[in-house]
Amino acid sequence: MARQDQALLLEPQHELKFRGPFSDVVNTTLKLSNPTDRNVCFKVKTTAPRRYCVRPNSGVIDAGTSINVSVMLQPFDYDPNEKSKHKFMVQSLLAPPEMTDMEGVWKEAKPEELMDSKLRCVFELPAENDKMHHDVDGSKMSNLLKSESSTLSMKSMSSTLDDTEVKKVMEECKRLQTEAQRLREENKQIREDDGMRMRKSNVMSSQHSSHSVVKEEGMSLRTVALIVLFFAVGVIIGKLVL
């Protein structure tokens, strides 16, 4: 028995296009619409599951509603000479009334109850002008973000410096100025004390020298007096003997 026609409407119908460069994750969207009056179960499969991240990759679409499936191609080294053989398949199944176990429904489904649609993957590289335009836009956006970040940082800093913090800063400046003045005065006092000690030292050394000279002069006078006295006594004794 032939399979039923696909109950879901796919957008796009035949191709999933991924636009490079492929040095980062590239995302495309697959829209699934359910035009029927019954709920429809669906699964999204691929021939290269390691290359793609699909969210959601399965679920139930209520009657008369739609869902967007995000298909994310992982980064890879793109070779323009290599044709893509990747394919996707959207498989669907009319949900039974009062369904409670979706996995059980898939396991018990008969082949003729399954519906599927296939899509191929197409990789596109941007033209050189588009790439340059993209790079310039990215650079402008980066500079703009940096500028806004700097402006926000300055605003944040100015807003945090409220009156209380400004007062604290002023008090700290005054304290530092007072401390500097005190250190200058102490330094000046130390220099004056050193000068006084040097002057006292000079005076004491000069006084000691004068005292030594006077003492030596006194000793010389006494010696001369004793010599004269001994001479006079010797003269007197000599006269008496004669």
What would you say this structure looks like, in words?
Strands 2-9-8-4-6 form a 5-stranded mixed β-sheet, with no helix packed on it. Strands 1-3-7-5 form a 4-stranded antiparallel β-sheet, with no helix packed on it. The protein starts with 8 loop residues before the first strand and ends with a helix. Helices cover 49% and strands 24% of the residues. By secondary structure, the chain is an alpha+beta fold. The chain is built from 3 helices and 9 strands; from the N terminus they run ββββββββαβαα.
Task: Give the key terms.
single chain, 242 residues, alpha+beta, four-stranded antiparallel sheet, 3 helices
Quick recap of the structure?
The protein has 242 residues and is α+β, with helices and mostly antiparallel strands. The chain is 49% helix and 24% strand.
Question: What fraction of the residues are assigned to beta strands by DSSP?
Answer: 15-25%
Cα radius of gyration in angstroms: 55 Å
The SSE order reads EEEEEEEEHEHH
**Global morphology:** rod-shaped
Number of strands: 9
Which structural class do the helices and strands define? Answer: alpha+beta
Order of adjacent strands in the largest pleated sheet:
2-9-8-4-6
Mean pLDDT across the residues is 78
H/I helix tally: 3
N-end to C-end Cα span: 186 Å
Largest sheet: 5 strands, mixed
Show unreliable segments.
155-161
Helix proportion: 40-55%
